[in-house]
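Possible regression after last week's pipeline update?

I re-ran a chain I had predicted before the update to compare outputs. Posting the input and the new output here so someone can diff against the archived version. Not blocking, just want to make sure nothing changed silently.
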Amino acid sequence: MGPAHVVGAAVIDGSGRDPGYLDITVENGRIARLGDASGAHGERLDAEGLTMTPGLIDAHVHLGLSSPIQPHFSFQLSAAEIAADIFATAGATLDAGFTTVRDTGGIDGGVVTAIAKGKVRGPRVLSCGPVQCQVGGHGYYGAEWEPTELWSSHHIPGLCALSMMAGNADELRHNVREAFRRGASFLKLCVTGGVVGAHDRLSDTQFTVEEIAVAVQEAAARNTYVTVHAHNNEGIRNAVEAGVRCVEHGTSLDESTAALMAAREVALVPTFAVVEQLLHDTAGAGLAESTRDRVEGVREQMTKALAVAKQARVRLGLGSDLIGPAQGRRGKELSLRAALETPMEAIVAATRTNAEILGLSGQVGIIAPGAQADLVLWNGNPLEDPELFSDPNNAVLVMQAGQIVKDLR
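New output (post-update):
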């Protein structure tokens, strides 16, 4: 294929610089040149009146939790229906302007492969495979009567595998090696209780420093990293001490813990959209109404934690953490973050910074020569109206690796 030129758009390039008017030349799936393309040969794509951003990145997704949670893990849904839900969510993610995601638990390697081969529509996916949890900890949703060793029977190989249980460091080492065997590109551990929890509380800490360090060692042996689900400071400090590179949620983060994260160059991925989802549509996620009680107060704590992390100069990514069938408005995370920071800071978090956290710096999340041609044209100016991210219809054109995968023009 010859070159294609996207002309006339106001370009927000992901760097944090003010937008400018640049023509973008795309060739062989990558951005070849920036600048005036008048008179150049090749296809011309008129983007007059639209705003361009890099393809957005969601650093905390759960494609494998696209079915209502309780029916999913109580064997009320067929594998075919679960697969249909997963692939529908993958397509909706792309339509919302997200061309890359980091799946933080729930899918097996077969989903990543199916999307990468183009058999179903979806974003570029980096996955941890099953989440690593301690016995009875966050991520375990079996019935109280069910023996832990039966939990793996909830997995559907090649499709979904939410979590693996470990009772000690040796079992954890075995489990993370198994996760890598299945195709994981990084690891995720639950080191505190969670909001959507069956047997734990937010104040619980899970895994010891020594146990977490085993996962860090195994990840380092494969030149990758560990991120952790963590809400309370003790759990975060345990994880940072063990050598993890990223923290998800960070709900109760305080000044001293944020300073430790900054000193160790540990990133934070706050997750506001899921809090809104669980407060306003608990049933839509397929969860009991009692879940709402666990969410009360989390939004306020997470807002404070964001400010604390920013003050400490912690690297701040962006993740939605949406669960259940209602994952179509993934861009709501940017709208929520824009209201707490600035629209430009939200965009940078969802592009350049997330690319850095994912280990894809310079490849995605930036409009620059040599980067993947992941581009989104928006119907409006998100710097003036960041709410437009909340409606996927405002992403009027999505290009992924130089291919137009959505076009509403």
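Follow-up from reviewer: compared with the archived run. The mean pLDDT is 94. Marking as no regression found.
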